[in-house]
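Fold this sequence, please.
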Amino acid sequence: MLSFSLVTGLLFARFSRPKAQIIFSDHALIAPYRDMTSLQFRLANLRNNRIINMEVTVTMSWLEHDGRDSRRKFSPLPLERERVVLLPLNWTIVHPIDEESPLWRKTPQEVADMEVELIVLIAGYDETFAQQVHANSSYTYRELTWNVKFAPMYYNDGSRVVLELDKINETVSV
């Protein structure tokens, strides 16, 4: 009896790990932002639970050609906001493209030649499971869309805010 209960407990602990149900937009955007350009993508929580203290890290990877050799370079991208206390709706992650950004004044063709990939890591605390949860995604240069912005994905119906998850990928021309 004791052996059976130990095996059952170990199997349950192994397969019942909490997993974040975070969805990401299909494309990252190079879009106007304030008085400059920015890199943007969206995410939202699919579950009806709360994830608190969410943090995001975005790293850009690209090939640098120097004559005969190519080397892969990595650079963390500074974000407008790297942490939110609570994720109640959606979150648009924004990297302002300024003089310090590796994307500064790059054209779509230059980004394609560099074979850019954006690596996204998310971490937060899931209150339902009382554990840290993680999610990740990436965007290649083929998944970058230029000169559009995200359409709103929520509205106020008078008594509450309604989030429409099926609009996470909707964009409008600039």
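Residues 26 and 169 are 6 Å apart (CA to CA). The longest helix spans residues 2-15.
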